[in-house]
Structure formats: structure tokens, C-alpha cells
Specification:
single chain; Arp2/3 complex 21 kDa subunit ARPC3; two-stranded antiparallel ribbon; 2 strands; globular
């Protein structure tokens, strides 16, 4: 069971639509909290995506990210630094953007299968999922832009590892804290 299903046991379609739109807004705001780095900025976007996936579950989490990407493709300024165009999606961050859908789905799947329910297993799951994001994230510039693996490691991966680990652990703390607060409130 996910946190959203615990809060809304009989979730209507309208509730799901509102959750998806709220989730895309949450991710878009998190994407604007940015530390400028080259070639991609470090944002709180992945923190928000992990929270959405862990809270919504696999299908609703992935749907939220698909809508988020569609919003960006339509030109809405939802990506880091207010970017949002189809051309931006085809640029250096394209692999990471596509990987976000998988990130939310995997986080949701971990909750639904019972793997991610307490803090330590949830933190291990979020750390693993954050690491897996680098596969599409780095394959994209390697294949599309011809970047070499040493350049990708030096500029696209190593500067972000510590921040990604912190965001993964924060996501686990926030969601498991949400469960604890809900259980305490219920009695």
C-alpha cells in the first residue's frame, strides 16, 4: 500500500488527476531550486520524483512523470531553470528526463511490493534507484552527442553523486516520516 492510498482509500479519477497535476507542480517547483553546474544543474527535481514515486505508487508515479514530460514538451517552464521545450528534451539532459519516468515507477514498485516500508530499506532503494538514473542519463549523451566515458564521469556524474545520495536519503526520511506521522495520528 502507498501513502496516497492510505490517505485516500477510495481514490476517484478526479482525485488521481488532481494528484498527477499536483505532483507535476511539485516536481516543477523542485526543478527550479538549482545549483548551476555544467552541463546540467543540480536541482531538487530527483528528490521530488522519488517522493512522488514512493507516495503515489508505480503507475500513478510514472503517469505523473509522463504528464510532467508532456508539459515540458508543450513549452511549459517545468524543467530546471525554467526550461521547457521539445528541443530542450532532446538536449544533453534528455536521458535523465526519460529516466525520471523509470525512477518514479521503480520507487512506486518498491513500495507496492513491500520492499520500501521502513527507513533503512527505503533509503537503500532510493540510493539504488538514484544510481540507476545514470544509465539512461549517461547513455543519452554518449550515443547522441558522442561524449566519452571519461568526460561523462568527470562532468556528468562524479560532481552529482554526493548530492544525489543526500536527496535519496531525504526522500526516504520524508516518506517514512509521513507514514509514521499518519500512524501516530490514527492512534
Amino acid at each position: 500500500m502507498t501513502l496516497s492510498h492510505a490517505l485516500f482509500p477510495s481514490m476517484s479519477r478526479l482525485t488521481q488527476v488532481l494528484m498527477v497535476l499536483g505532483g507535476t507542480l511539485f516536481i516543477a517547483v523542485a526543478a527550479q531550486i538549482s545549483i548551476p553546474m555544467f552541463p546540467v544543474p543540480m536541482t531538487l527535481q530527483t528528490l521530488a520524483i522519488l517522493i512522488v514515486g514512493l507516495t503515489y505508487g508505480a503507475r500513478l508515479g510514472a503517469a505523473t512523470l509522463l504528464v510532467y514530460l508532456a508539459e515540458g514538451a508543450m513549452g511549459l517552464p517545468v524543467f530546471a531553470n525554467g526550461a521547457g521545450t521539445l528541443a530542450y528534451m532532446m538536449g544533453p539532459t534528455g536521458g535523465f528526463l526519460l529516466g525520471f519516468v523509470l525512477m518514479a515507477w521503480l520507487a512506486g514498485l518498491a513500495v507496492e511490493t513491500g520492499i520500501a516500508q521502513r527507513f533503512v530499506p527505503t533509503a537503500l532503494v532510493t540510493l539504488t534507484i538514484s544510481a540507476l538514473l545514470y544509465i539512461p542519463g549517461l547513455l543519452w549523451p554518449a550515443v547522441i552527442m558522442g561524449k566519452t566515458w571519461d568526460v561523462l564521469w568527470l562532468h556528468w556524474m562524479s560532481p552529482f553523486l554526493a548530492g544525489d545520495a543526500v536527496k535519496a536519503v531525504l526522500a526516504a526520511l520524508i516518506v517514512t516520516g509521513g507514514w509514521a506521522a499518519m500512524k501516530a495520528r490514527r492512534g
